[in-house]
Amino acid sequence: MMETKRPRKNALLYGAAFLATAAVIAGVLALLFNVRTRREEAYRYPLKVVEIKDGEIDPAVWGKNFPLEYDTFVRTRENYGRTFHGGSERFSRIDEIPAAKRLWAGYAFSVEYNEERGHFFALTDQKMTRRVREFDQPGACANCHSGKAPALIREMGWEAFNKTPYKELSPKLRHGSVCADCHDPETMELVITRPAFKKAMAAAGVDLAKATRQDMRTYVCAQCHVEYYFYGENKELTFPWAKGRTIEAIEACYDENGHVDWVNAETGAAMLKVQHPEFETWGTGLHAKSGVACADCHMPYVRAGSVKVSDHWIRSPLTNIAAACQACHPRPEEELKSRVKDIQDKTAGLLRKTETALLAAMDAIIKAKAAGVPDERLSASRALIRRGQLRWDFVFSENGTGFHSPQEAARVLAEAIDFARQAELAAALLAPAGIR
After folding, report:
1. Do residues 65 and 46 make contact, with C-beta atoms less than 8 angstroms apart?
2. Cα–Cα distance, 261 to 229 (Å, whole number)
3. CA gap 245, 304 in Å, rounded
4. Confidence of residue 91 (pLDDT cuts 50, 70, 90)
5. DSSP-derived secondary structure for 398-410
6. What whole-number distance in Å separates Cα of residue 15 and Cα of residue 254?
């Protein structure tokens, strides 16, 4: 009997020892997890060094409570150089793409149009541009270029803010992009601070109160990185999304309300100027359909000591592929860069072909006018060139050079070329024996 009991007794002892060891390991792991969680919570909800009062927009003040985010945010004033077709280096885009000067003939953009720098310079660069210094612009232009805009809107009222001349409003503007543009000062939750976005989303049936945090990591960017226009005599900043956010829906909105940005000085066509439709373009792409937010790529999480923070050096993902891309695409960095370059080079090539077609259409209209063709007979050609150039500008002025939605960019430019060639042919057929 003793022979059979001893192994059973040893097994029980070993089992008890194993369980005790496992319990110790589990306890240690739980302790480490708890320490890490508390450390991250302590950073996320720190003891306030300063009280951030409602209306405080200076990022340096907010940075006293959130130094790690602030350390990255101030880097938006650094020039990280040029990427394949953009970057933070300030250069003249109309010098680089001379066709744009003719395409925008008679409009302020034909005088100066520069590659944007970092968010730190959002207000500085706007005040410096000849489009503001030499042309009369409404205060609506300041909506997205100054952290002071929300306070001035509350103080002046939405209509008054928009229609006040920019030069009159300019002395009251302070700071470029700021923390308060996207964050609640008490809770640091992501918030929408710009009325035009709220109105546009409400009109589209989107309840922002039900937006998830991941939704908000795109929506705070979409307050500004969109196509817009100044509606009516009050120059109200408006997003043309009443019928949707595709180029066709935007065009239908403009056609319905009869909006015209300017009349081209060479062709006499009533034209539309697109701004920077990143949100609209992203919305048709694979990343959007996969639930990827703007911040996932342009503000990826980075490790700062023992905590994880969102990188507020808002910039091209090409400058930080390890954090911005490889978290989802575990491929070599050079391979990922090559993919982006291929997409952007092909988009740029299509843009140049579209410009050639649009200039040919302009020349045909100009020749028809010189041949004595009455203005009313040129209306079809002018309508077609308006449609073609709207699509070219939709891709040209979007800051991803096709990357946010490659197939959509190619489709839109194919239609732009088609409309441009139709405009050219329609004008050429009007002159006696055609235009040679």
Report:
1. yes
2. 8
3. 38
4. confident
5. STTTTTTSHHHHH
6. 77
Confidence of residue 305 (pLDDT cuts 50, 70, 90): confident
Exposed, middle or buried, 400 (CB in 10 Å: 0-12/13-18/19+)? buried
CB 350 within 8 A of CB 85: no
The number of angstroms, rounded, from the C-alpha of 392 to the middle of its chain's C-alpha atoms is 18
Q: By percentage, how much of the chain surpasses pLDDT 90?
A: 80
Q: Are strands 270-271 and 262-263 parallel, antiparallel or unpaired?
A: antiparallel
Q: Is the dihedral of CA 44, 50, 56, 60 positive or negative?
A: negative
Handedness of CA 366, 370, 375, 381 (dihedral sign): negative
CA-nearest of 277, 285, 230 to 254 is 230
Tokens of 226: 């969109």
pLDDT for the residue 44? 52
Q: What is the dihedral of CA 8, 14, 20, 21, to 10 degrees?
A: -160
Please check whether residue 151 is in contact with residue 178, taking contact to mean a CB–CB distance below 8 angstroms. Answer: no
Token pair listed for 97:
């793409």
pLDDT surpassing 50 at residue 274: yes
Q: At what angle do helices 195-203 and 213-222 cross, to 10 degrees?
A: 120
Question: Are the beta carbons of 395 and 413 closer than 8 angstroms?
Answer: yes
> What DSSP character marks residue 48?
P
